[in-house]
Amino acid sequence: MIELNNLCKTYEIGDDTVRALDHASLCIEDGEFVSIIGPSGSGKSTLMNVIGCLDVADEGTYLLDGMPIEEFSDDELARIRNEKIGFVFQNFNLLSKLSAQENIELPLVYQQIPKQERKRRVDEALDRVALRKRKNHRPMELSGGQQQRVAIARALVTKPSLILADEPTGNLDSKTGDEIMTLFHELHDQGNTIVLITHDEKVADQAERKIRILDGKVFDA
Amino acid sequence: MVFQSVKMAMDSIMSNKMRSFLTMLGMIIGVMSLVVLVSIVNGATKSVTDSIANIGTNMLSVSIMDDKDAPLSMDEVEELTEYESVKNTASFSTGNATAKHERNSESITLYGTTGSYYEIKGLSLLNGRFLKNADVDSSTFVAVLNQTAAEELFGQTHIVGETVSLNGYHFTVIGVLEEEESTTGNSSERLEAYIPFTALSKISGSGRNVSSFYVTSADEDSMDAVENEITKFLYLRFSYDSDAFSVTNSSTIMETMSSVNDTMKWMLGGIAAISLLVGGIGIMNIMLVSVTEITREIGIRKAIGARKKTILLQFLIEALLVSIIGCLIGIVLSALTVFGVNSLIDSVSASMSLDVVLVAIGFSVFIGTVFGIYPAYKAADKPPIEALRYMR
């Protein structure tokens, strides 16, 4: 459950002040599949960073599963990201030195989960994205679609409250993009909460609920 | 957690073989120059102190410049042993003579002394015996030759009982001294004969007055006490004139020598430490070149929930591993170099000491850690969104 109340955030870029979030309020229930759409510079990256606890708003309150995010320290936010949020990035953001399996395992390592349990959950996540055969490959040895599926498995493996996907199909061709979207639908059907950020209307239309952001203001579309 | 960090650090080292190798290379060269240079100086110091210790570190040499018309007698010198801290005394005088045996004729240095000279100077005999106090008391014409003198005059060293002529006086050879391992190399050229102090004064007509003698203490610790006693005695003996005599302490010479060597050690060690520092800067350079990669990696790790402490621990362990491995390789190579230098170059006897090895380890680990972790520290301090955005 996500509740944003009157969030404001401004950036100074040279002499200009950019209002990236302008009294943005939003509520997302558990199990929803929401897309957030807006052109570049509309503040959607800022909104995603705030929802993902990577950044904190200047004003307003953000409750994630009832926790007031702005009150936590950096290390506590790291723990919340680790346990509550699964990230899927446009450019995958996998660690190139590690194999697919080790990439997926990493958030569990930070939770200090025992090795046996980690292995079981990594295999489970690999099965969900149908990549078990490729688990020992490094990211460089995988196609874009496969890399994105590894990233999705990494997001899933902690059983997060929220999967936050930032332009997950942006770096993929349309066929592979469709496959990834199909995967998101499956994950939604299995009960995961998904927030998908995009500038592509066709991608955004696939969500249950579409939210539009423009000049830092949020509207239900 | 630490185990995980070690594993991550190992993965990182192995997946950046070139970077790890270059980092280690800086360390290896730095450690090698430090250890090898200091070892060579150590070796030099050791050989100098050894040769001084051979003379005896518990010895005073006294010479009397102005006897105030009341010259010191041999008996007075003997009586100095009544001081508790004084172990032995030996009066001596020197002179030059022509030594002859059959047709051989050589110039020779004469030492007129007493029986205790043997022990004081740490001499050793090849054949026969040294002078005894009875020889001195009765001023017997007996002589102990050094090995060179025996070989030059007799062509061999088994000459006990033979007669040698010194300035025309016939002396019976009673012993031959073994040649000392000399560091200066040229003293073995000299012909030397040791004869009773009284015999020398007889043939040179110089009288039985003592103008120089040696004093030894029971041990090194009582050196200062002996020096004080002797100085006080001579001060009173020669009308309160401290310029009438001089007392030289062999450990003073040694201290001077070893302080010179210490200076050398610090100087060379300093130069080597600078090269270690340069190695460290090389490490930082390499780390900074890969800072883009490191920053992105740290951004990703932070986004998926790594705490700053966890990240720093990983990079700290990585830096430590690289510098310790580099340092160990450097020490092994230094040991081989020291061994090689010793066996190839005769005049150098380098010796590796534990101290310098420990200093090298400590210093390189310190530098490796500081320079290795600094870029990681900078990256871990960035907010994750900024670190994630960090791309070429």
Structural features, described:
The complex is a heterodimer of chains A (221) and B (392). Chain A is globular. Helix content of chain A is 35%, strand content 28%. In chain A, helix 3 (100-110) crosses helix 4, helix 3 packs parallel to helix 5 (144-156) and helix 5 packs parallel to helix 6 (174-189). Chain A is of the alpha/beta class and 221 residues long. Chain A has a single domain (2-220), classed as Rossmann fold (3-Layer(aba) Sandwich), CATH 3.40.50. Chain B is an alpha+beta fold. Chain B folds into two domains: 2-52 and 257-389, no CATH class; 66-243, no CATH class. Chain B contains 13 helices and 13 strands. In chain B, the strands form three sheets. Chain B has a six-stranded mixed beta barrel. The longest helix of chain B is centred in the C-terminal third of the chain and has 40 residues, at 250-289. Chain B is elongated. Chain B starts with a helix and ends with a helix. Mean pLDDT of chain B is 82; it is low at 182-187. The interface between A and B is medium-sized, with 27 and 24 residues.
